[in-house]
Amino acid sequence: MSDRLIATSPEPALLELENLSKYFDVSKSLLNRTIERLPKQILKAVDGVSFSIKPGQTFSLVGESGCGKSTVAKLVVGLHKPTGGQIRFDGTNVADAKSIAQNAALRRRWQMIFQDPYASLNPRWRVHDIIAEPMRVFGLAGSSTELSKRVSELLEQVGLSAMDGEKYPHEFSGGQRQRVSIARALSSNPEFLVCDEPTSALDVSVQAQILNLMKDLQRDIGLTYLFISHNLAVVYHVADMIGVMYLGRMCEIATPQDLFRNPRHPYTRLLIDTIPDLEMTGKAREPVAGEVPNPINPPSGCSFHPRCPLANDRCKSEIPKPIHSATGMVACHAAEEGRLPAPQTVAPA
Amino acid sequence: MLDEKTAAKAPSGFVHRFMDSDLVYSFLRSPVVVISFIITALYFLSAAFAPWIAPHNPFDPASLDLMEAFTPPAWTADGSMKFILGTDDQGRDILSTLIFGSRISLIVGFSAVLFSVVLGVGLGLLAGYAGGWAETIVMRFADVQLTIPAILVALMIDGIARIIVPVELRDEMSIYVLILAIGVSDWPRYARVTRGATLVERNKEYVSAARVIGVHPIKIMFQHVLPNVMGPVLVMGTIGLALAIITEATLSFLGVGVPPTQPSLGTLIRVGNNFLFSGEWWITLFPSLALVILVLAVNLLGDWLRDALNPRLR
């Protein structure tokens, strides 16, 4: 699926997802099911998602709550086992790395930054030990003085003081904790960072600081990011590529410029319309029709059709195939058939 | 509480941080808790230094004189200053037997709580973190055991031990059997609390962070989750100590606990009980009082610890 995307780029991708799916069994217990004669209930959190990330780039996943973006992140770092599809990291199929050594060699190359800085640091551990843990696990530690030196370096690299290692997480603010989180993620010298809404729990002013820190790190160490967010304005500033997800499927993949100037999926347009904008003050907005449907029982055909202004009979019955272009992808019958009206949206400032 | 000099000298020192903590503050604020703590500490000290503190050695037959049996407490007409709280039917000094008895009670209670905490927390962690079949088996087993009163479980284990242990070793082993019996009878409470707390902790992102780098599940359980679930367990353990001492006393009172040659508070109460109606009230009253005061003090400490460590009650 992503073959064509790769073909257009001379550089091989660092991470490729091919038809990745994750289904969760959310049925009641066997006893309840037998008594109440209920069928098994499967939640398709991620359903056939494909994309690839080139080294040194930032790929952003956006979408509403419950669209499966965090599940993709967890699949990529191995917190969930995929139900179907493949994850290839630097050409290696992650599922093939079965031995402990192979697994550790792969895991060493990626790290994750979590959403809630209040939950992602063990409250009983000193910051020094939190940051040193990945180095200890991967045996990069050396002597304890080397370890302390490296932890101090990392703390300073993320804009904290080397003295902060002695403190406990509760002695820090949310933004500082997120810096600790980033320092921990960097400690094993990864090439690839998965960031699951790293700024959504922070104040706006602190968000900018953390985003700038992440950008600086990308420039200095050449990190590759998978950046999950529901905030389009943030994504516009950090991403090299944006993937829009809806109910476990990928709607559109495009560069930020293309996505904001010329969104090709009706859902993307709806998302962009919801960005608060000073110029729009006082003007009537198109109200967002409907809510995200229940993912246990998604709509037939294109899962967006109940909310889509362009939906027709074909959308209700047939799942749209991804249409690849030189820089992106869109999965929409209206886009395929050319029924899409011209976009009126502008990129956020 | 803390003078300025110490604060200036060691701003991040452990002692300073400890003295400055909410725990110490709420401790010093409540006179009941301070008194309970002092009483508990006195019990522990007298238990630890029993041979030096006790005025007599009640277990040395050479020092016993049957002529001195049934001496009432010192302040009564027939009392003697030699035996402040009087003597029992064998002429043993009640105060000394009390000191040695509470020593046995504390040792048994402490070891039993330790045993059930280790067992309960271990199984609770496993059940909570692993989930699935391990959880079902452990927790259903705990549920079933909870339907049987702890004292019955302890009696049953004691009965089984009596069959297994040879007669000549019985007195020697009885204290270990007692620890095992009380410990096994009490583990489900700790397992339940630990499992509940583990279920909350295992979904937190710091556990995911450890899983991402491939930390072994056993290591995650003990290094990451355990320190975060120990708070409620410690509180339960403190209250559990009081319960274990009572269970031990009950078992000894029923005659299945420690032998009369190494009496605990429960054994002393049982022995004294035989003389209650013939007027020798002091033989049973003082061990009972000692037991009540000890359990009350430990219980009050436990209650305070529960409230002090509960962030929602602060």
> What's the tally of helices of chain A?
13
CATH homologous superfamily of chain B, by name? MetI-like
Q: If helices are DSSP runs of H or I spanning 4 or more residues, what is the number of helices of chain B?
A: 13
Biggest interface, chains and residues, is: A-B, 28 and 15 residues
Please write the CATH class name of chain A: Alpha Beta
Mean pLDDT of chain B: 85
Going by CATH, the homologous superfamily of chain A would be P-loop containing nucleotide triphosphate hydrolases
Shape of chain A: globular
Query: Averaging pLDDT over every residue of chain A, what do you get?
Result: 86
Radius of gyration of chain B: 23 Å
What is the element string of chain A, with H for helices and E for strands? HEHEEHEEHEHHHEHEHEEHHHEEH
Total beta strand runs of chain B: 0
Write the layout of secondary structure elements.
The complex is a heterodimer of chains A (349) and B (314).
Chain A: H1 3-8, E1 15-25, H2 30-36, E2 42-53, E3 58-62, H3 69-77, E4 84-89, E5 92-93, H4 100-107, E6 110-113, H5 127-137, H6 144-157, H7 174-186, E7 192-196, H8 204-221, E8 224-229, H9 232-238, E9 241-246, E10 249-254, H10 256-261, H11 266-273, H12 313-317, E11 323-324, E12 329-330, H13 333-337
Parallel strand pairs in A: 3-8, 3-9, 6-7, 7-8
Antiparallel strand pairs in A: 1-2, 1-4, 4-5, 9-10, 10-12, 11-12
Chain B: H1 4-9, H2 14-19, H3 22-29, H4 31-48, H5 50-53, H6 94-130, H7 132-147, H8 150-164, H9 170-202, H10 205-212, H11 217-254, H12 265-273, H13 282-309
Helix pairs in contact in B: 3-13, 4-6, 4-13, 6-7, 6-9, 6-11, 6-12, 6-13, 7-9, 8-9, 9-11, 10-11, 11-12, 11-13, 12-13
Structure description:
- The complex is a heterodimer of chains A (349) and B (314).
- Chain A has 349 residues and is α/β, with parallel strands linked by helices.
- Chain A has a single domain (3-109, 191-279, 288-337), classed as 3-Layer(aba) Sandwich (Rossmann fold).
- Chain A contains 13 helices and twelve strands.
- Chain A has an eight-stranded mixed beta sheet with strand order 6-7-8-3-9-10-12-11, with helices on both faces.
- The two termini of chain A are 34 Å apart.
- Mean pLDDT of chain A is 86; it is low at 1-8.
- With 314 residues, chain B is mostly helical.
- Chain B has a single domain, classed as MetI-like (MetI-like fold), CATH 1.10.3720.
- Helices cover 72% and strands 0% of the residues of chain B.
- Chain B has 13 helices and no strands.
- Chain B has helices spanning 4-9, 14-19, 22-29, 31-48, 50-53, 94-130, 132-147, 150-164, 170-202, 205-212, 217-254, 265-273, 282-309.
- Chain B is globular.
- The two termini of chain B are 20 Å apart.
- The model of chain B is unreliable at 1-11 (pLDDT under 50).
- Chains A and B meet through helix 4, strand 6 and helix 5 of A and helix 10 and helix 11 of B.
